[in-house]
Amino acid sequence: MATILAVSDVINRSDMQQEALAEYPVLLSDFRVHDAVQTNLPGTAANDDLAIISGTLGSAAPSLRSSDAKATTVTQYARTQIPLPPEYDAGETAGIVLKAGMVTTISDDSATVDVQCYRNGGGSDICASAAQNCNSLTPSEKTFFLTPTSLVPGDVLDVRVAVAITDGATGTAVIGEILSVTLICDIKG
Amino acid sequence: MTIYIQYHGTLTRDAFTQDALAAYPVKLNKFRVHDAQQTNLPGTASADDLALITGTLGTKLPSIRTSDGKNTTVNQYARTQFRLPPEYDAGNTITIRLNAGMVTTVSSTTGAVDVECYKNGAGADLCTTAQTSCNNLVAADKDFTITPAGLVPGDILDIRIKGAIVDSATPTAVIVEVNSVTVLLDIRI
Q1: Which positions in chain A touch B19 (Cβ < 8 Å)?
Q2: Rounded to whole angstroms, how far apart are CA atoms A76 and A80?
Q3: A17 touches chain B (CB under 8 A)
């Protein structure tokens, strides 16, 4: 049955109901070496660089992984830039979700993931969440909320993810893995 | 003014007001060597290729730079492709905005940026704006107008940007820097 809607002029974006925490997956191939962004991530993690792992087509999507941290300490990074879309509701909730866990063996001490985020590359880190535990063989989503004050559509978020592992006595591989990275934000339209 | 819409359960895009010049930032790591698209931009500009500069996390986004053009002439390029999104209002305004300026020293003669743009990779250059000066240590937005006639959602814009320097008498570095590339589009939700 037809309904008569009365609206002012035609419909503006502001007339629409907000959709909370819409998801915008980030292609992991968009990540680069954090301090040499002209360089793709390596296939094997080394020094302070995470690796991008191919995954077998049909079995697993590409992922980001640390090197083997058994009986040692590893902190490794990758960096990308994420634009806020035109439909982002300025100043409203935004965050970065990492799906992360461990490969082969958990650490006997700690394994965490972390996010740093800078609006248009400068200022202070707007990631309001501290590093989060990912020391489990069952990956799960870790949400890092951003301070959205001043964020507007078209802003570019300069994002660096980190995997940090401390292990003292594990005999088999202790590897941190990020399976997905997703921008979440409140949108209209 | 209040108007009334007879609502049958769906709305077409035409029911919405146009968002003029919505910003779609282009990730600078999407630019490749202009005549070797399998190759990322180098970390140092050379020959006719612009470089992708990392920028310090927390201080500056990655940028694109020429080599040092002091006492010489430089014309260097980078190329990417941009897909017009489903919400683009066919045939309406498209602008490619470069935020650009000079690093260290302005040129004694010319420091400029330019844009070429081809619909689906062929035909005439759709960019109607000529090479534009950026010969200033304070970076500024430089807008390049794209002829929108015939452009529809799903079209691919093949975009090549240029940094151009002519310098003859400067003792210190003369470098063109592009801080950001943004496609501005008229869209409907």
Answers
A1: 13, 86
A2: 14
A3: no
Q: Does A121 touch chain B (CB under 8 A)?
A: yes
Regions of chain A where pLDDT drops below 70: 1-9
Task: Provide the b/e sequence for B129-152 (b: ≥16 CB within 10 Å).
Answer: eeebebbeeebeebebebebeebe
CA distance B172 to chain A (A): 25
Q: Which of B109, B186, B105, B106 is nearest to B146 (CA)?
A: B186
B2 contacts in chain A (CB < 8 Å) = 6-8
Three-state SS sequence of A28-86: HHHCEECCEEEEECCCCCECCECEEECCCCCCCCCEEECCCCCCCEEEEEEEEEEECCC
pLDDT tens, residue order, chain B (189 aa) = 555 555 666 788 888 999 999 999 999 999 999 999 999 999 999 999 999 999 999 999 999 999 999 999 999 999 999 999 999 999 999 999 999 999 999 999 999 999 999 999 999 999 999 999 999 999 999 999 999 999 999 999 999 999 999 999 888 999 999 999 999 999 998
Work out how many CB contacts closer than 8 A connect A with B: 122
Query: Is B15 in a helix, a strand, or coil?
Result: helix
| Rounded CA separation B141/A143 (Å) | 35
Nearest to A34 by CA among B19, B114, B29, B180: B29
Strand A63-65 and strand A174-187: pairing? Answer: antiparallel
pLDDT at A1: 47
Output the six-digit token pair for A29. Answer: 């191939």
CA neighbor of A110 nearest in space, from A129, A136, A88: A136
Contacts of A32 in chain B (CB under 8 A): 29
- Is B180's CB within 8 Å of A156's CB? yes
pTM over 0.95: no
Residue A47 neighbours by CB under 8 Å, 6+ apart: A76
Side chain identity at residue B75, one-letter code = N
Using a CB–CB cutoff of 8 Å, tell me whether A125 touches chain B.
Answer: yes
Q: How many CB atoms lie within 10 A of CB A21?
A: 17
Q: Which of A5, A121, A124 sits opposite B61 (nearest CB)?
A: A121
